[in-house]
Design brief:
By secondary structure, the protein is mainly beta. Helix content is 8%, strand content 40%. Strands 1-10-9-3-7-6 form a 6-stranded mixed β-sheet, with no helix packed on it. The chain is globular and about 45 Å long. The protein starts with a strand and ends with a helix. Mean pLDDT is 88; it is low at 35-51. It comes from Pontibacillus chungwhensis.
Length: 204
């Protein structure tokens, strides 16, 4: 059974799961429903009558060296689906968040992550949020989970329950090294960064 985490919790990943080498990190979210009424503000935002844009959330991974982002190849997102050391693979962009389960997935070969990286920060941000006037108050059921890629066992799940109205970026969690082991931190923080480049600059 997966460990269900609360915001701020940290857990051993590899120490508690000997032999773990490859994981799938799943990130999911759903748009807030508009109570079945067409038209109006939410109807316009979610295509329920006004024809407005749906919210496009994007998952990304920032690879840090001594807690710093130093090279553009260390950002894995829909425009760069594989890390420069080939240890991380992003499966691609999901434009709507519709449906159950993971909306976007990232595969991490823990053994292959170059030793110079000490932390992998998982990010979800709203594409073009400022122009579309969208924020995470329009998103619900956000989560991050980690699954053993070798047997599909879910190991860790963190459901984000805070109200993030007015925020445009989420930092659901981090994988980080502790000696020879990997641990996971349930961060669950939100920021007002409106672009991926703006987020990355904070780690530079």
């Amino acid at each position: 059974m997966a460990i269900s985490l609360q915001k701020g919790q940290r857990v051993d990943l590899t120490k508690s799961n000997p032999g773990l080498k490859k994981v799938m990190v799943g990130l999911g979210w759903d748009p807030v429903q508009n109570s079945g009424k067409k038209g109006g503000l939410l109807g316009a935002l979610f295509g329920g009558g006004g024809g407005g844009p749906e919210i496009d959330c994007d998952a990304s991974v920032i690879m840090l060296k001594d807690d710093k982002f130093v090279h553009k190849g260390d950002l894995v997102y829909f425009g760069n689906l594989k890390s420069s050391d080939k240890s991380i693979t992003h499966t691609g962009d999901n434009l709507t968040g519709a449906g159950e389960g993971d909306d976007e997935q990232v595969f991490v070969n823990l053994d292959q992550v170059s030793p110079e990286y000490n932390k992998l920060v998982f990010i979800v941000n709203i594409y073009d949020a400022k122009r579309r006037n969208q924020d995470f108050g329009m998103i619900q059921n956000a989560f991050i989970r980690i699954q053993n890629d070798q047997n599909n066992e879910e190991l860790i799940r963190f459901n984000l329950t805070d109200n993030h109205t007015g925020k445009t970026t989420l930092i659901p969690g981090e994988l980080y090294r502790d000696g020879t082991e990997w641990k996971f931190a349930a961060v669950g923080e939100a920021t007002s960064d409106v672009s991926l480049s703006e987020i990355v600059q904070k780690y530079s």
